[in-house]
Amino acid sequence: MGEHGDELSPLSTIHEQGSSLSFRDHALLSSLRLDGSLTFSNTSSAASDFGRIRYSLPGAILYPKSVRDVELAVRAVQSSKGSGLTLAAKGSGHSVHGQAQALRGVVIEMSTLKGIKVAPNGEPGFRHPFVDAAGGELWIDILKATLREGLAPRSWTDYLYLSIGGTLSNAGVGGQSFLFGPEISNVLQLDVVTGTSQLVKCSPTKKSDLFHGVLGGLGQFGIITSARIILEPAHEKVRWIRAMYTDFATFTRDQEMLVTQAPESAFDYIEGFVVLKNKDSSHGWNSVPFDAKKIDPSIIPEEGGSVLYCIELVKKFSPNHMDTLNKTVERMVAPLSFIPTLIFTIDVPYEKFLNRLHEVEISLDSQGLWNVPHPWLNLFVPRSSIGLFDALIFKQMIKDDFSGPILIYPLNRNWWDSRSSAVIPDESIFYLVGFLRISLPSSGALLGNLIADNDKIMQVCHSAKLGCKKYLPEYEDTESWKLHFGKKWGSFTRRKQKYDPDFILAPGQNIFSKST
Ligand code: FAD
């Protein structure tokens, strides 16, 4: 499979390693009568991903124009018994560990399968707005299409240039998840081409085993060709607030109080960050204000450890109701115990807020800092362990040279359907903690060292029995996957046998391997 560490082989070496298909597989795929197209050359565009850690050159790329193309490709790969040929759906390729790659296999570029249809009034029997979107469509395009009808999905990731199929194969977590659950909890229906090449319409009431299995299913059971997503009325603007803390217990107490409030009196979005205790404008305290203004270091309290914490809140509003908004927000922040001089506020259009990371992307890209390796580690940490997690990891292992944001915010388990394939800790509140590391060529932060730092975090979690679960997991061996899935391993393997018995789908996840 792909390479790990700093000594990445150049793509040309990987190519020599064997990208080409056997004569038989090549002939089989060439014989398909497709609406779209298939290429056997220039497949390097599907060999890498946002992580830039793993490189696996596929033997072919399919650009589907119809669901039938997807069915034909799956059927062909399934029929190639004994050849080792596999198939991966690729959304926007924003995985970081090769999850959408297929070495010497077929990658389906889902982005060419188009379709977004908004139903503002629902349909007979279900008078609630929804959108039907093809699996390769991006969330940003769903947002734009639904806003034209004054509507929008309820639950979001922080970044919108991700595909429907790719996020639903994980969970899709963000600042609205405490209120509406992750994106997988906001899906009404799916169209899926299973590993046995059956096109199945499934929902919580129809073929529900497949429906729940596919959500958070890491692409193992089928290819999502379409998803029906619930919508709500969109708002015009949001008030966006950041407030800083030195004391971790106070910070998490406030976050937990906020995510357990009744929905009608809650904020519309709650996240948080760990901020380095220095004046760096990327990851230190000067990264918190919305304008470029620098914080006077004398107002940063000296107590506390090596890091600071920042809560991020949003309240939606209409510009006609500014008076009410001011009073409401004042009342809502009153019980919070942040450092009174360190609160920052800005009002922005709703779409600008949801698409906020795109501006960061453009800026980093212009400096050559977007297409660099991203050895990210995302964890779900049980509430009962979060204090110890802070003491052992944030306070002791996060150094001044940490490069990249560190996210931390609580989620409510009651919004997660236990029948889905997503794996979360067994507590009613758990935290998303994301170490979103960037390996910058200039900083000397070598990829191998950063991966080793992530491994150390995992070792500490394990030794201290913190009960953490990886989000966007990646493991190399079956034992680790078994441990990851815990009680869900039985249903996960049963579903694999049922929906992809030849183990052809999403080989880049390294959970199962097709026998040759
Ligand atoms: P890909 O990388 O293309 O695919 C991921 C997996 O899904 C692969 O196994 C692939 O085979 C499978 N797959 C893809 N399409 C389909 C399909 N149609 N049917 C079945 N399987 C399919 N995640 C969050 O939860 N919250 C965030 O706030 C968040 N922010 C992010 C910000 C950035 C900048 C980045 C790079 C990632 C972020 N993520 C976040 C992680 C992201 O949700 C996952 O990496 C997701 O898988 C990316 O979607 P994708 O379309 O790029 O998937």
- Indicate the structural class: alpha+beta
Low-pLDDT runs of 5+ residues are 1-18
**Approximate helicity band:** 25-40%
Please give the count of helices: 15
End-to-end gap: 16 Å
Assigned CATH class of the largest domain: Alpha Beta
Count the domains: 3
Instruction: Let me know the largest β-sheet.
Output: 8 strands, antiparallel
Into which percentage range does the β-strand content fall? 15-25%
Judging by the overall fold, what is the CATH architecture of the largest domain? 3-Layer(aba) Sandwich
Q: What is the strand tally?
A: 18
* Cα gyration radius (Å): 23 Å
Outline, from the CA principal axes? globular
CATH homologous superfamily assignment of the largest domain: FAD-linked oxidases, C-terminal domain
Describe this structure in words.
It is globular, with a radius of gyration of 23 Å. It has helices at residues 11-18, 23-30, 67-79, 139-147, 164-168, 177-180, 208-214, 248-259, 322-333, 350-354, 356-366, 386-397, 447-463, 478-485, 489-499; strands spanning 37-39, 60-63, 87-90, 106-109, 116-119, 130-134, 151-153, 187-194, 199-202, 222-233, 237-245, 269-276, 307-317, 343-349, 377-382, 406-412, 429-435, 469-471. A hairpin with a 4-residue loop joins strand 8 and strand 9. The strands form three sheets. It has an eight-stranded antiparallel sheet. Strands 5, 6, 7, 8, 9 and 10 form a six-stranded antiparallel sheet that branches. It has a four-stranded mixed sheet with strand order 1-2-4-3, covered by helices on one side. It has three domains: 11-109 and 504-509, Uridine Diphospho-n-acetylenolpyruvylglucosamine Reductase, domain 2 (2-Layer Sandwich); 116-233, Uridine Diphospho-n-acetylenolpyruvylglucosamine Reductase, domain 3 (2-Layer Sandwich); 237-471, 3-Layer(aba) Sandwich (Vanillyl-alcohol Oxidase, Chain A, domain 3), CATH 3.40.462. Mean pLDDT is 94; it is low at 1-18. It has 516 residues and is α+β, with helices and mostly antiparallel strands. The chain binds flavin-adenine dinucleotide. Flavin-adenine dinucleotide (FAD) binds next to strand 3, helix 5 and strand 10. Flavin-adenine dinucleotide binds next to strand 3, helix 5 and strand 10.
